[in-house]
Amino acid sequence: MVTGGRVKHHIVNNIRRAESTILFVGYQAEGTPGRILLDGAQEVRLLGQMHPVKAHIEKIDGFSAHADCDGLLDWLADIRVPPRCVFVTHGEEKAANSFAKVLKERTGWTIKVPQYKETVELV
Length: 123
What we know:
This protein has a two-stranded parallel ribbon. The longest helix is centred in the last third of the chain and has 15 residues, at about 95-105. The chain is elongated and about 55 Å long. It has 2 domains: about 5-60, no CATH class; about 70-110. A hairpin with a 2-residue loop joins strand 2 (about 45) and strand 3 (about 50). Helix content is about 30%, strand content about 15%. By secondary structure, it is an alpha/beta fold. It contains 4 helices and 6 strands, in the order αβαβββαβαβ.
């Protein structure tokens, strides 16, 4: 997502080069530099400076280490005693709500998508 580490330096060293391609192979969350680049930004702020985008920006889908909806449902199918509540806390709001709806329909469990900074007391 280009939010930390060496990748920021690699991109800064190549983003101005028209002969370069920056290839994303994983999901890029909203608001991250990776997503900003994929959305077609003409410049991006990295390492405290604005950099014009001259490199080709591309993406290959299918290399994520995260399970998709079906993978998560398969994993959850092994739970023999229904949990009191399942909290869906990963993904952007639209995807989390969509997954929560499917999970509720398939299992009948209590499902909750907490809001940002929401506190839940577990008793």
